[in-house]
């Protein structure tokens, strides 16, 4: 594999995720004040959140991913998006995320099959919750008040993303973008799903 660009701020988070085509975001009504809509390139399904593990341990997770992809065959997954729901504490949710409608089961299986090895390789804290494929599309900003969050829920409940379809055919190591005003994340290393 080509040399990885592992430069990142020391407090940057790392994660392995499935990139999705976020072009649909340009068609949405703007979210309410004090929300940030994700950029088209930031939309993904997190497989394993590695936290602030640093570049060396993140690179080890990528090696573990290569081994897993060589050992088992993961076919590309056709998906469609479903409801947009709050994630985290319902009273002070941290994200508004689209659930998968079509493709949910195979994606859940893929996440479940891979994530333990990835956490282990990066010495990251495992997430004990069952895998839940979701693509964050907007986040409340720190200054968002309760009425802003309520407006965010109303905005999310009116979205119909059932027409958004695509194929999950790659898996990638992500970290924070160098310029967070242009995008939130950047792909450091990307792999095709073995059946792709």
Major β-sheet annotation: 5 strands, antiparallel
β-sheet strand percentage: 25-35%
- Integer-rounded radius of gyration: 17 Å
Shape type: globular
Oligomeric organization of the protein chains: single chain
- Cα separation of the termini: 17 Å
Unreliable stretches (pLDDT < 50, length at least 5) are none
Key descriptive features of the protein:
single chain, 196 residues, alpha+beta, four-stranded antiparallel β-sheet, globular
Structure description:
The protein is an alpha+beta fold and 196 residues long. It has helices spanning 54-71, 104-122, 146-158, and strands at 14-19, 35-37, 44-51, 77-87, 95-100, 134-140, 165-168, 170-176, 185-192. It has a five-stranded antiparallel sheet. It has a four-stranded antiparallel sheet with strand order 3-1-8-9, covered by helices on one side. Helix 1 packs across helix 2. It is globular, with a radius of gyration of 17 Å.
